[in-house]
C-alpha cells in the first residue's frame, strides 16, 4: 500500500521590500512521504521569494512536485497556460533545466545541500546558453535551521530587505542569505 502525502498548511505573510511585494497567502502543501521538512520549507521560501505582486499574469502555484516528474516544484502560468516561471529545487540535471528553459520565460533553481557547489560546477558549462536561468544556493546550515520551523500548521512571516531574508514564527526566526550561482542575463 502506497503512503499518502501529509497535508501541511502555511499562512504566509510576505514583506519583500527589495521587489515591493507585500501580501498574505494561505498555502496547502501536500508533502510527499519522500520529501523532508527541509525541502518543504525551501519550497515555501521559494514561493515567498517569487510571489508576483498581483495575479494579472497568473498566480504562482505549488505543483505536484515530487509526485509528477514532468512538473516543477512551483510555477507561474498565465491564463493561456503558458509557463511564465518554472521553479525547481535541489539539484536537477542539465537536460531538465534545458527543457524547462525552452518552455518558460524564466527558470529558477534553489539548491540547499552542502553538495550544491559541486553539482553546479558539473553542469554550469552546459547551461551557459540559458540567459533566463537563475541558480541560487541556500547555505545548508540555513536551510536546516529553516526546516526546524516546520509544523503541520504554520504562521510564517517572510521579510526580504537588501538581499537578506528573515523567516519568522511566533517562537523563532531564521536568517537566510542566498548565494547567486547564476543570474539571468537581464539582471
Automatic annotation (TrEMBL):
Pfam families: YaeQ (PF07152). It comes from the Bacteria. Gene3D superfamilies: Restriction endonuclease-like alpha-beta roll domain (3.10.640.10). This is YaeQ family protein. It comes from Kinneretia aquatilis. The lineage of its organism: Bacteria, Pseudomonadati, Pseudomonadota, Betaproteobacteria, Burkholderiales.
